[in-house]
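Fold this sequence, please.
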Amino acid sequence: MYWYWSLAAFVLAVLLISLIGRLTRYYIGKKIIQLLDQGLLRVPLLNKIYVTIKQVNEAFTSNKSSFKQVVLVEFPSPGQRAVGFVTGEQDEAFHQGPESTVSVFIPTTPNPTSGFLILVPASDVKKLNMSVAEGIKFIVSLGAIPPEPVLPTSTLPGVPVSHG
């Protein structure tokens, strides 16, 4: 046998194995995940918990962050402050007067997937000069890792920037 037939057989084997691996990973793997999803959604009570966890996971892992800005708000009582994340501006249904209202998620420490959602007038929100990743690191570390300040990337109308 000539050496190029051995080389051709080797290249063909590598291509076939790669093709089968890719099909298995993307097609069969997705089918298995879909079957597991359907199975979990059929279990009473577990389906409600599973859907909620799945939505939270998608919110945290999606390419576009649902957290727009790291802020400081008065919480849980006047005079006390908490680090939170602006998740959006609310429509007129939540306004209390002419001022706009923002929704702020205040995660619990050290597990940032649970927390409190509060609606705050925009004037009571102080933007912090740090990235969302630094804010999450600060919360998960129980405040032990100080954030490295960055320039704010997004602006909210009527929300003052606090440098510190």
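The longest strand covers residues 81-89. The chain is about 40% helix and 20% strand.
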